[in-house]
Design brief:
Layout lengths: L2 E5 L4 E6 L4 H18 L4 H17 L1 H12 L3 H25 L7 H6 L4 E8 L2 E5 L7 H12 L3 E5 L5 H13 L7 E3 L7 H6 L5 E5 L2 H14 L2 E5 L4 E5 L5 H13 L9 E7 L3 H13 L19 H16 L3 E4 L14 E4 L6 H4 L6 E7 L2 H9 L3 E2 L3 E3 L3 H10 L6 E2 L14 E2 L2 E2 L4 H6 L2 E8 L2
Parallel strand pairs: 4-5, 4-7, 5-6, 7-8, 9-10, 9-15, 10-13, 12-13, 15-16
Antiparallel strand pairs: 1-2, 3-19, 8-18, 11-12, 14-17
Helix pairs in contact: 2-4, 3-4, 3-7, 4-6, 10-11
């Protein structure tokens, strides 16, 4: 795959970039290793000052970088601005909280005495250069939610971004450099996927984090396992959105539309499978389908656009195949489901009912504005349907019954359960999944500690 900016709204190639050769990659690996030796000794106050400066610069650049994001991957411009603002917020959050999150921990006095020590503590120390393999769908946020905690912990970063967002990738390197971070603290590697394995095998790279597809995660995890290196993986999702009889149906349906089509439906944590109790199935479906039909699909640079194009021609073809397979197998397409005429890789908001386990769309992640509807007879069937997926990233539950809430929180196989609201990441809360959605956590204290050496310090008499 070439490294290029291709506008998904038109299919026009705007800029192309040459992949870095082996000599340049080696120079950058050397720089990362050398920079880490000194950067790791900087104080939290020094790191926080630079991180806050990066947040301020990002605020200043918000409109410009939002246009770049939209041009490269197609999300509506208002959502691109919101993504930039969210990144600045996360930078400030880690600047404020990193020191307390990584403060030395003292075991209980009785345990220290029992160990024969006069003093003991647990200290968090940085690992070194961390390779980040990141996707195109949130080209700023996916990187910042790794970079902010990693840099605040004293690590340095090497970014291999998706090949269709090179300008955003280069912007990030420049942003951190302008904020006062040394040149080797955060570097963008303009390379293809075929170069990742060799870099990950390099002894100077101490760990890796990947957000992306399941095959990409398997490849990185395999190499990292062979090299005995720590990894954090955030892979696909097919999140359930469960609606029970006590739910506020009007609000649930409105949120359901947003939860499905955010980022043009190209989000791992977007709600994808809508599981509705039979008592309210018809009422919810009527509201939900009407909301999906009312969305405005069009030029993502226009402020009133709700849904822009998919990221690539291949992405649209993959989504079409899932919808067509379901239709051929007997599913009912309640709205959408047909490719529009004209340029760009657009696909309309689509709702499919009558999905069965044999259909591909039941087993595979639909990465685009396509929702599947399921009817559940009772709470037990709702839980079974929600968990009937190889993924386990997050989940959404709509009910005002406390016993039902307790049951969903206990039994849903997911990294998050959002009650009467849609899944959204926040720097204070851990984010990640189970099953084939990956392992490890980003954000919060859990995220910043993922790439730390948790060191026991024991003092004898």
């Amino acid at each position: 795959m070439s490294i290029a900016t291709v506008n998904p709204a038109t299919g026009e190639t705007l800029r192309t970039f040459e992949a870095m050769d082996g000599e340049e990659i080696e120079r950058r690996l050397q720089l990362a290793e050398a920079t880490f030796r000194t950067y790791r000794t900087t104080s939290f106050a020094e790191r926080a000052q630079r991180m806050r400066r990066a947040a301020g610069l990002l605020d200043d650049d918000q409109q410009e970088i939002a246009r770049t994001i939209t041009c490269e991957m197609g999300k509506p411009i208002a959502q691109a601005r919101a993504e930039a603002a969210k990144c600045a917020k996360a930078m400030r959050w880690y600047a404020e909280h990193a020191e307390e999150l990584l403060a030395d921990e003292e075991p209980a006095a009785a345990d220290v005495k029992d160990s024969g020590a006069v003093r003991a503590l647990v200290r968090y120390r940085p690992l070194g250069p961390v390779l980040a393999v990141m996707p195109w769908n949130f080209p700023l946020w996916q990187v910042v939610r790794f970079a902010a905690p990693a840099l605040m912990a004293g690590n340095v970063g090497l970014l291999k971004h998706a090949s269709n967002v090179p300008q955003t990738a280069l912007y990030l390197e420049d942003l951190f450099h302008r904020a006062g971070f040394a040149e080797g603290c955060f570097q963008t590697l303009l390379i293809g996927s075929d170069a990742v394995d060799e870099i990950l095998r390099d002894e100077r790279v101490r760990a890796a984090t990947l957000t992306g597809s399941e095959p990409a995660g398997r490849a990185v995890a395999s190499t990292a396992g062979e090299m005995v290196k720590k990894t954090v993986l955030e892979l696909g999702g097919s999140d359930p959105f469960v609606v029970m009889p006590s739910a506020d149906l009007d609000r649930a349906a409105r949120v359901a539309v947003t939860a499905r089509v955010q980022n043009n439906g190209q989000s791992c944590i977007a709600a994808k499978r809508f599981i509705v109790h039979t008592d309210v199935y018809d009422a919810f479906t009527e509201r939900f389908v009407a909301g999906m039909r009312a969305l405005r699909m069009g030029d993502p640079m226009e402020e009133d656009t709700d849904v822009g194009p998919l990221s690539s021609e291949r992405a649209r073809a993959d989504l079409e195949e899932l919808v067509d397979d379901a239709r051929r197998s007997g599913a009912q397409v309640l709205c959408g489901g047909e490719r529009p005429e004209g340029p760009g890789w657009y696909y309309p908001p689509t709702v499919i009912a009558g999905v069965t386990r044999e259909m591909r769309i039941h087993r595979e992640e639909a990465f685009g504005p396509v929702a599947t509807l399921y009817r559940a007879r009772d709470l037990d069937e709702a839980v079974l349907l929600a968990d009937d997926t190889p993924f386990g990233l997050s989940s959404n539950v709509w009910t005002r019954d406390e016993e039902e809430i307790d049951r969903f929180v206990r039994d849903l196989e997911a990294g998050g359960v959002y009650v009467n609201g849609m899944t959204a990441s926040h720097p204070a809360f851990p984010f990640g999944g189970v099953k084939r959605s990956g392992y490890g956590r980003e954000l919060s204290g859990h995220g910043i500690r993922e790439f730390c050496n948790i060191t026991t310090v024991w003092h004898g008499a």
